[in-house]
Amino acid sequence: MKLLIVDDDPGITEMLRDHFSLRSFEVLTAHTAVDALFLGFHEKPDAVILDLGLPDFPGEQVLQTLKKLLPRTRVLILTGQSGPEMEARLYGLGCDAFMGKGAALKTLEGIIRGWEK
Question: Which of 1.10.238.10, 3.40.50.2300, 3.40.50.620, 3.90.1310.10 would CATH assign to domain 2-112?
Answer without folding.
Answer: 3.40.50.2300
